[in-house]
Amino acid sequence: MPITEMLSLNAKIYPHEVSLIERDPAANIRREITWLEFDHMANQLAHALIDRGIKPGDKVAILMMNCLEWLPVYFGILKTGALAVPLNFRFTASDIKKCLNTAGAKTLIFGPEFKERIENIIDNGCCVENYIFVEDGSMPGTENFFHVIKDAPTHCPDISITDDQDAALYFTSGTTGVPKPILLTHANLVSACITENHHHLQTREDNFLCIPPLYHTGAKMHWFGSLIVGSKAVILKGVKPQYILEAVSQEQATIVWLLVPWAQDILDAIESGEVKLEDYKLDQWRLMHIGAQPVPPSLIKRWRKYFPNQAYDTNYGLSESTGPGCVHLGLENIHKVGAIGKPGYNWQAKIVDKNGNELPPGQTGELIVKGPGVMKGYYNNEEETNRVLKDGWLYTGDMARQDTEGFIYLVDRKKDIIISGGENIFPVEVEDFLQEHEDIKDVAVIGMPDDRLGEIPVAVVEPKPGRQLEESAILEFCKTLPRYKRPRKIIFDRVPRNPTGKIEKPVLREKWCGKSISVFI
Hints:
Elements: H1 4-13, E1 18-24, E2 29-34, H2 35-51, E3 59-63, H3 70-79, E4 83-86, H4 93-103, E5 107-110, H5 115-119, E6 130-133, E7 143-144, H6 145-150, E8 166-171, E9 181-185, H7 186-200, E10 207-210, H8 217-227, E11 232-236, H9 241-251, E12 255-258, H10 260-272, E13 287-291, H11 297-306, E14 311-318, E15 323-328, E16 342-343, E17 348-352, E18 365-370, E19 377-378, H12 382-388, E20 389-390, E21 393-402, E22 408-413, E23 418-420, E24 423-425, H13 427-434, E25 440-450, E26 454-463, H14 471-477, E27 489-492, H15 505-512, E28 519-520
Parallel strand pairs: 1-11, 3-4, 3-5, 5-6, 6-7, 10-11, 10-12, 12-13, 13-14, 26-27, 27-28
Antiparallel strand pairs: 1-2, 8-9, 9-19, 14-15, 15-16, 17-18, 18-21, 20-21, 21-22, 23-24, 25-26
């Protein structure tokens, strides 16, 4: 069954029940739609796209901030048999144009935040034939979304879609190089629905608070667990602790997926007295889970202090595995915080050496996974596809180890390993250690070139607001680490993260490597 049929079934079974809620606290705006309205909007867009020449196999790109229209647009594209191509909202005009041309997108549907960037693309060597602007108003060279769908039919278009049909192109986040388009099928998307629901046990009584960007597989594929049972979701615009807690309280959200920085901000706000938990109704909040990056165990220890009755889960995945779930901790395994978990529902996982041989527990190697969410491949890139897909196994590029109970611990990205004097240093291990320091808000460890050792580990430290830190104090704190793992220098700076919470280490390496430094405050 293609994923579009799940939406149609919800519209038929729960037509007048709320499906999506948008909250924009800064603008004091709240909007909602029912499952029937959701399905009708998707169908209207599908008919409008078909009228403009879109056919199965074509590409339609989405460049929108999170909003009420985002998911209906996504499903409207899928209902035509075309491929949805979500784009990172942080892409420059040049990045957007490159991705559109790489995908061969015929239509671009975009939001008001991107007007200036799109003005630089229209009639400037871009393959796009139709631009649809999602806002009340007009823009030269574009059509207005609400005008386009206004008189379109609300029934589902008569397009045959099969499970193995191509559904979407997702560009990698680009934190480790040039973004590559990942080709996913309808079967991939449906598998994400099944895996997510099996892991987090969503029912129709749940309400999922969605904060991360919908262009990424993480947020959307977690929401898929709600789609499969017809439960509602809240799309929150804004990540301030007060916004998150107000949304949980006022909308009675039961499941929240957070990124590490947002969880840290909530804890900092509680501990500083900026927010008081007694001001919010949070008893129904049953599950907090985190993914997209390694999670410091110290963070979860702090979280459990204030939310002792909540279930917790860590989720690991990649866009190449149709998002999160190929490995997950499991609600019953809170005692194993620090691990990313075991193979997810319908998934297999192994730790292998450079020759693909499985390693015994305790040894570090590359994590590879196999399951129904493994991508079809990198679009029009056979060489890269063959490099990461071997005999059905996806080579993740992440270094990991497994304990004797089968739990997997993420060590680091292959590309981020620091080799200092012949010793391998895994930055995540040092970062987790430094996160235990009560005055550190965030930290990233990178390798800096060194004439004698090849590389030395350097820690980029972001102090908590109002806290004073000295390099000497942090170096003293690190003395319990093995000598070769200790940071040789400390830089006080903001730790940059992309919209999915991953540390942008290429940005830090470009900024700091090769510079002569001692202490930066």
